[in-house]
Each structure stands twice: as structure tokens, then as C-alpha cells.
Amino acid sequence: MSLDPEHVRLDRLNAGAPFLKVHEVDTLDAVIGSVVPGSARIENGRGIAQVRISERADVEPIWRDIQAGHIRAVSIGYQVHRFEVSKPEAARELWRAVDWTPFEISAVPVGADPAAGFRAQSPLHDCVLHRRDVPSTTTGAIPMTDKPKDPADAANETPSDDNAVEDTTMTEPKTPDTEPKVAAAETRVQPKSQKPDVAPAPDTETVATRAREIERDRVSTIYDLAGRLNFERSFAEDLVKRGTDVDEARRLILDQVAAKSEETRTFSQVSIPLGGRNEAITRRDAVANALLHRYSPTLFQLEDAARQYRGMTLMELARESLGNAGVNTRGLSRDEVATRALHSTSDFPEILSAVTNKTLRQAYDAYPRTFMLFCRQVLATDFKAMHRVQLGEAPQLLEVGESGEFKRGTLGESKESYKVKTYGRVVAITRQTLINDDLDAFTRIPAMYGNSIAQLESDVVWGIITANPAMADGNALFHTTHKNLAGTGAALDVTSVGAARAAMAKQTGLDKKTVLNVRPAFLIVPASLELKAEQLVAQNLVPAATSSVVPQSIRTLAPISEPRLDTASETAWYLAASPNQIDTIENAYLEGQQGAYIETRNGFDVDGVEIKCRLDFGAKAIDWRGLYKNPGA
Predict the structure, then answer these.
(1) d(CA 501, CA 555)
(2) Averaged over 294-303, what is the pLDDT?
């Protein structure tokens, strides 16, 4: 390989060629970095390039081994465009590449010789390009990676007169994996100057046979590479139709791999730079975890990264956040540190925001919302009124006469409407809270908000049951006209529940004729009747009398106890069907704002942080036929 700068095309390297693991081109994971554009050059008979290492987690161990000196060797992949062939006296024929292109650099376990490796005392990484022989019967452009030659062969070669380049001695040979494949069908060698001792061209039949083999190999290799990298088949078909040789196809495939690889960074020295965005996010999450663990060790387990912040006060964390942002806090009073931490570009406000969000969400999810079992949840796209159609039964099928005429039927319907409403509140946390190390202000207050939001949802839904609002037909939700209200109140027992089940089963469609056979799934009671309801549906192993047997159909009811019902009546109880069988009550959140939502900002009216809590929620009874009420006794 000639290392004359005029003989080496460095455009591919200087355009940002990939830095690979051991010449792997089959997967994106093989790309562990890239060549810094414009850094490749030939200097004193050596090829030198600067590489940037990827920030991916799986590349970090490789970078550490490079830093520690465990990985020292590098290798290149290249394509030869032109050979000069000469045959010295009493020696083998010498092929010298005088026009070639390196297109990738790889980290390898064993290099061609000790000089091919990373610089130990330089901010750049150098790569020494070695020459390589090919069999004398092979002609044309040949793709190569640098592999050591047999020492006996190397001793018999001498450079041509017009390309005198000192060859590098191979002192650490490695066994080549495979012989290189011929990538073009060209069989004619163009020497730099006419010499009488150039090898003769092979016969026509040999050329034709070889050309067919090369073409089959070219097509299969291109399809195989594209398939293993999950490229579209049209990409490989285009390369085949254009007659692209294997080396050029590999170059184009590497371009695609490099384009999809993750963004990399340049290491100007051995130490890994800190302060990047990923490191800042990791530190922010660790501080938030330490604060959450301090708030509730049982709910939030302490992570390893957060142990260094355990026991630090809010003021100490604020001072460290300012220091990480480049703010010198030496000589600042506690008040000045608190003010700057809450109003500067440090990540302290984001840490507090993360803490408030997690504590609010945890409290919101932990609050028992008993209505969710028998209600249907939907999402609203806006705050406009949503119209829900109460579909009737499908019309009865009629016998088709000999004429084959089908009669048309219609679906009865009734309409209910409601809309999502916004509920919210803002509370301010001042710098005095930070100075006093009052962590509860950032944890317990949001937790109370989360609890309050869950309570508000329950108030809205259970308020429908206790208020008994009018439906679209003008009658109350529970009304004798709707046949879902017992005429005489009865205590909760097998007989009264059986009568309620029968009434629900007899509910008819909007045509007042079709029996719907609605089956209850839930027994809803106030807290005062919770024990009695549980006893009613409990398993009777040895009943005292036949009359004491509770049928299986009643024991399958799931009891729901809600203390909000006690404020309206301590004796009334209800049955509800599954929302999968028939509509009952529907509740809706604004799309993208499901459940509790909280946000923080630097205060303007107050000297501190403002926390805004918001809920976009609505509910409405859609159909009365899936609900039944007994006033009790």
C-alpha cells in the first residue's frame, strides 16, 4: 500500500466515516464512533485520524478499555482502485496499490503491527495503514482490510522505483479470517508505465467463468448485507440494477449505518467530560429520589445514585445545584442562595417540580375511588358538550316471504349530554420554606392535593347517585316510571335483593316491549350496611335452614361500600350492572390530561415557587336501566 498522499483518497474518512468494532458492518451496534470530519491525513508515512466515541451505554466499556490501554490496536477497511504491477528479478510479482480509499476504521484485538494503534500521549487517535499482498492470479479492484502478510512473502517483495515507500515490519501477525472477495469483473491491469514483465491476461473462457462467479457473488452479497441490516429490499435492488460492485455497495450501506447511528462527542483528552445533558438529568433524578426517600422511605426506595445526596438539607442541595450550573456560591448568605436557586438557570426548580409531581401522583393513585368498578371511563377532546345516545334494542327479525322482500327497521334512541369541567388551585412555596428546610411543603402539600383531586372525582360521581338528577326524558334517574326504584323500602336481605334482580331483568327497551334481561354485577351500600352486605354474599357452608341459603347468583355480586351514601341515607342500597353489558354512569377526562395534573413555575407575585394543581373531569348518568335503588328500612 502506497502512503504517498497523492495515492490515498481521504474523502471518505474526512466526511465522517464510521469507527467500528472489528470491521463489523452487519448491525448498527457495531458503530462505536465516527471519524472527526477533516481530521484524516498522511503524515511522515503514517495515516492519522481523530475519532469521536459514541455516548451509548454499551460503548462505555469499550471506551474504558481504550483509556486503560487494554484495547490498543486499530485496523482499516479500504478499497483499491488501481494497482501497479512489477516483477523484480528472482522474486515474486509485486502488486502495489497506488490509488485506494480507506472507508472505515476499526478497533481490533490484534493489529497488523505494534504501531497500528491509539496514541497514548496525544489528543488524537492515529491509525497506521499497512500494505497487503493479493494472489498473483487475481486482478481488478479488491476490497481489503489490513491483515499481516506471511513473513516469507513480505521478505521477497520490493517496492517499485517510482513508489519507494518504506514497508512496516509485521511483528505481531494474526491469522486472517477469510480471503477477500473480488468485487468487480474487470480483468485488465493498467500499469503506471509500460513494462515488458507485466503478467499476461488470462484466456477468454477463464475471464467469462470468473465474471459469472463475480456477478453471482456480487448480487448475493448485496442482498445479504441489506437483509441483515433490515434495509428495504428496493434499496438492494437499486444497487444490483445499477451494477454497483460489492465495495461500493458496502460503502453506501456504511453511509446508511453512519447516518442512523447516534450522535457522538469528541474526547479531547483521556478523561470523560462531565456536565453534559445526560449527566445533568441523571443527577437531577438522583437528587429527587433522595428527597422522596426522605419524605417516605417505604414508598420510595433509595437508589444507588441517590445515596450521595442522602441527609443533605434543601439549602445544601440548592447550593450544589448552583455550583453545577457554574454559579459561585462562596460568600452568599442563605437567603441569597435560596433566591438564586429558585430563580436561576440551575436545575433546582426542576428537581422540586419532579418531587411535587411524584408525591401528588402517588397520593392520587392511592386514594380509593369506588365508583370506577361500575362506571365507564372515556376521553373528551374538548370542553364542548358531549352527547351520548341511549340506544334501544335492535328491532325484531321478521320472517321473509317467498317474494324475498326484507322489511326495514329502526333503532330507538334517547339522548343524554354533559361536558368536562376544569377544577384547580394554586399554592405558593416561598424562599422561607427552603431556608427553613421545610421538605413537607414540597411533599405533603402536593400529596394532599393528590388526595383532594381523587376525592373531587368521587364527589362528582357519587353526587349523581345521591342527588338523583333528572334524565333527558324529564324523570329522575331513580323513578318508578323507569322501573328502577322499589315502591316500598325493604331491608337488605335475600328476598329484597332477589326482587331487585327480577326488576332489573324485566327492564325493556325503548319500545317498551323487548325484555333486556339486565343482570346486576355490583351490590352498592353505604358504610353502615357494609358488614351486612359482606355477610349476605359470603359462602354459607352449613346453613341452619333451607330459608337461610343464599343463592349463587346473589353471592356472585361484588359489594361496594361508599361512605358518601350515608349522608343521604344509611338504609338505601343499590344494584348496578356491568358497564360492559349496559351503560350506567360515564365519566370523562380531557384527552392528554387524565387524572391529576400539576405544574410549577417561579413565582412573580410571591418570592418563591408557585404550584398549580388542575383537574379536567366530568360525569353523567347515561342510562337508568343498569341501576336499581331500594330506599331500605
Answers:
(1) 13
(2) 87
CA 406 from centre of chain: 54
8 A C-beta contact, residue 319 and residue 338: no
Spell 117-131 as b/e; 16+ CB within 10 A means b.
Answer: bbeeeeeebbbbbbb
CA-CA distance, 629 to 524, in Å (whole number)? 9
Q: How far apart are CA 19 and CA 125, in angstroms?
A: 11
Name the percent of the chain lying above pLDDT 90. Answer: 21
Helix (H) or strand (E) holding 226: helix 204-228
Q: Residues 361-414: pLDDT tens digits?
A: 888 888 888 999 999 999 988 888 888 766 555 556 667 766 666 666 555 555
571: Cβ–Cβ under 8 A, 6 or more apart, which residues?
A: 489, 491, 526, 528, 529, 631, 632, 633
Identify the DSSP state of 470: B
Phi-psi region of 62 (alpha: psi -120 to 50; beta: other; left: phi over 0): alpha
CA dihedral 257, 261, 267, 268 (to 10 degrees): 60
**Percent of the chain whose pLDDT exceeds 70:** 75
- Nearest Cα neighbor of 210 from 272, 264, 126, 138 is 138
Q: How many C-beta neighbours within 10 Å does residue 38 have?
A: 13
Per-residue confidence (pLDDT) for residue 97, from 0 to 100: 85
The Cα–Cα gap between 99 and 84 comes to 9
CA pair distance 50, 35, nearest whole angstrom: 6
Q: What was the pLDDT predicted at 397?
A: 67
Per-residue DSSP letters for 387-408? EEEEE-PPPPP----TT-PPPP
Cα-Cα-Cα-Cα torsion 431, 436, 437, 438, nearest 10 degrees, comes to -80
Per-domain boundaries in the chain: 5-265, 277-365, 413-540+550-630
Helix axes 233-241, 246-260, angle to 10 degrees: 150
Task: State the cell numbers at 494.
Answer: 335475600
pLDDT reported for residue 469? 94
Nearest-angstrom CA–CA distance, 505 and 517: 4
Residue 617: closest CA among 589, 585, 586: 589
- Residue owning grid cell 335452614: 545
Amino acid identity at 405: E
Alpha helices in 377-482 (DSSP H): 431-435, 440-467
Whether the per-residue pLDDT at 576 is higher than 80: the answer is yes
Give, as one character, the DSSP assignment of residue 224. H
CB neighbourhood size of 512 (10 A)? 8
| CA-based R_g, the chain, Å | 40
Least confident of 20-34, 151-165, 364-378: 151-165
Number of residues that this document lists for the chain: 633
Q: Decide: residue 584, CB within 10 A, 0-12 exposed, 13-18 middle, 19+ buried.
A: buried
The distance of Cα 28 from the centroid of its chain, to the nearest Å, equals 18
pLDDT in tens, 214-263: 777 888 888 888 877 777 777 888 888 788 888 888 888 887 776 665 44
The DSSP element (H or E) to which 618 belongs, if any, is strand 608-621
Does the CA dihedral 75-77-83-89 come out positive or negative?
positive
